[in-house]
Amino acid sequence: MSELRFVRLGFGEDSVEYQEAWQKQREVHAARFEDTVPDTCLLLEHPPVYTAGRRTAENERPLDGTPVIDVDRGGKITWHGPGQLVGYPIQKLPRPVDVVAHVRRLEDALIRTAAEFGVETSRVEGRSGVWVLGDPVEERAALGGLSLDFDPRLQDEEFDPRMNGPEYAPSNAGQRREDRKLAAIGIRVAKGVTMHGFALNVNPDNTWFDRIVPCGIRDAGVTSLAYELGRDLTIAEVLPVLEKHLRDVLENAALAPRAVAPTEAAVPASVPAVEPASAPAPA
After folding, report:
1. Of 44, 46, 132, 253, which is least surrounded by CB within 10 A?
2. Is 75 annotated as a binding residue?
3. Could you give the CA distance from residue 143 to residue 210 in angstroms, rounded to a whole number?
4. Is 186 annotated as a binding residue?
5. CB count, 10 Å around CB of 15?
C-alpha cells in the first residue's frame, strides 16, 4: 500500500491558470522521482482553456482561431474550465510502466464517484475516459426530422459537427440520447512517474466543447453530473467523494510492471501516452 497525498490547488475565484498548474506538475514530478514526496494528486479548477495532446489534428482545433495550448500528454484536444474538476495524479509506478492499468484505475475511481451520485457510467471499447451510454441507435429520435439512416456521421468520415447546426453539437448529445463523455483521461509517463490525469465534468458550460472536435470524436458528445442528474451540483460536493475513491483505488492497487514480450525486451521502446478520452488511446 502506497500513501497518496492530495493537494487542493484552487477552485472558483482561485482557479489555477493551466500553465501555472503545468509547472507545479513538473515540480512535483521531479520531487516524486527523487522520492522526496509521496504519490501526490493535484486537484483544481482551471479558467477556460483548450489544450491539445500530441495526436491532435489541425482540423480538430477551433475554427475561429481561439488559442490552444499544446501539451506533452497523449491524446487529442479537449477543454478545461469552470465547473470541471481536474486531477493530476503524480504517481511512481514500477517499470516497465503499465500505462493501460493506470488509466483503468483512474476510470474505476471516476466510475465509483459518479455512481455515488446516482449516475451510471461505463467504459467504451477503444475510447478512454468515463461515459454515459446512449440509447441503441434504433431507439433514438431522428436528427432534423430525418431517419438515422441518413445521419451524415455514419457515412462521412470528414463530417464536421461544428458546421452543421446545434442538432450535432457535442453539448447536445444527451438530448439526442447518444454516448456522451462524463470524464476525460490523458496522461504522460516520464521516468516511471505519471503526469496529467483526468477532467470530471461536474457542472460546466459544455457548449465550450462545441468549438472543437472533443478528443477527435465526431460521433459522440459530452455531458456532466449536473445534466445527468437534472439538478445543480457543485465542485465542493463532489471533491471529497472523488478523493475517497481515488485514495481507495490508487492506494490499494497491486502495482505491477507491464508484461514484456521477449521480442519487445530486446528493443528499447518509448512509453505510450494517453489522453482525455479513451484507454491508452485518444481522448
Report:
1. 253
2. yes
3. 17
4. yes
5. 21
Q: Which residue ranges form the domains of the chain, and what is each CATH number?
A: 4-265 (3.30.930.10)
User: Is residue 41 annotated as a catalytic residue, yes or no?
Assistant: no
Is a pLDDT exceeding 80 seen at residue 265? no
Q: Which residues in 154-175 are b (16+ Cβ under 10 Å) and which e?
A: eeeeeeebbeeeeebbbbbbbe
Q: What is the pTM of this model?
A: 0.88
What is the C-alpha separation between 238 and 113, in angstroms, rounded?
Answer: 8
Annotated active-site residue in 119, 215, 271, 279: 215
Annotated binding-site residue? 22: no
Give the relative orientation of helices 99-116 and 235-251 as an angle to the nearest 10 degrees. 140
User: DSSP state, 92?
Assistant: B
Q: For 206-224, how does the pLDDT look when each residue is reduced to its tens digit (9 = 90+)?
A: 999 999 999 888 888 999 9
79 is in an annotated binding site: yes
Outline where DSSP puts E strands in 101-146.
122-124, 127-132
